[in-house]
Fold this sequence. Notes:
Elements: H1 3-12, E1 21-22, H2 26-32, H3 34-38, H4 44-48, H5 53-66, H6 81-86, E2 88-92, E3 95-100, E4 105-108, H7 132-138, H8 144-150, H9 154-163, E5 170-175, H10 177-185, H11 187-196, H12 198-221, E6 226-230, H13 241-247, H14 249-261, E7 265-270, H15 278-282, E8 288-291, H16 302-309, E9 314-316, H17 321-326, H18 330-344, E10 350-353, H19 364-381
Parallel strand pairs: 1-10, 5-6, 6-7, 7-8, 8-9, 9-10
Antiparallel strand pairs: 2-3, 3-4
Helix pairs in contact: 5-9, 8-12, 10-11, 10-12, 11-12, 12-14, 16-18, 18-19
Amino acid sequence: MTSKQRVHAALEGKPVDRCPVTSLYGFLYQQDHFAELTGLSPWQLQQWLAMPPAEHVELLARIQAQAPFELLQPQPAASSRAWRARQEFLEQDGHAFRHDPQTGEWIQLDLPTVSGHATDYHANQTRHVSSRADVDARVTVTPAAQQIAEGANDYLDAVVARFGQDEFILSGGIVGTLYSCHWHVGQTNLFSLLIEQPELIDYLSQKILAHNEEQIRRLAAAGGDAIYIDDATATSDMISPAMYERFCLPYMQAMVQEIHRLGHKAIVIYFGGIADRLEQIAATGADGLLFEASMKGYTNDIAEVARRIGDQMTLFSNIDPVAVLQNGTEAELAGEIARQVEAGRRARGFLLSTASPITPSTPLARVRRFIELARIAGAQGGR
């Protein structure tokens, strides 16, 4: 079977020659390990994200050859074609810079990050909207056709053209409406507003849903195979099942339906505890489910998930990327893969994957060993 055939079969609950092997959020792995995977300087990641599509996809092919995960995931939406065309990348006085001649902007590219990732991330804590009028003024919904015309799909189109016949393309994804609200009301504020001003969060969520649906239409237009929804902060460590049903489930169902309407598979991702809302997650109608490893006081047991909803959704394994992949012994890694394969036999379909993105401290040799061991065990667990 090709990777494309294998992943489609797994997501549809059909027989496979072996379980597919992947790690979702592959675009983060490509960024965090860019120098290791390409032999280029770390700062050249930013140059890669501004290259013409043909050059960009050639470098992606080199990356994919180094770590051949299934569910090939391109980088997120390309910057506008006009912006990319005018960027200059220069080395001066021992440092690397990006220069925009039109704006006069100079950005140094070789500064270390605090997190150790390719880029640092900070949640928003500032409240920007307090009324429906504020929401209407702040949340813009850009039609998919306009995004495509400006070049957002240029890299994705090139990836589908180069790999789409044999590789399963996870075209990209969107972030669930609940988490996306925090960009407008502040992350801490958001959870109090679920109680204090639920109607405002409902209205904001509806506007974000419209935005997300246009993103789905843009991604689907490239002709890949699947789109993911990261339903961040919709887990037991953050909100109750009742709040999940009120503020997440209807929007998740709408997004999954739109993905399906456009002929793509829908994969949902949960970083947090899900044991108390498995049936609700299954009710999203998604094809595949990936969830975090047990941590932070909650337990996400793959065997329990397979027993309770495994006949309704295809499951991704939740191998701990830190304790097992990064820090575990060879025997611990092989043993956990085997345990998860055995648990996955009860599911409609099963893919071997890390529970969350691969860490910056995990070397390529270890990633390759994970792929090798998972393919061996997955052949024994294939149906």
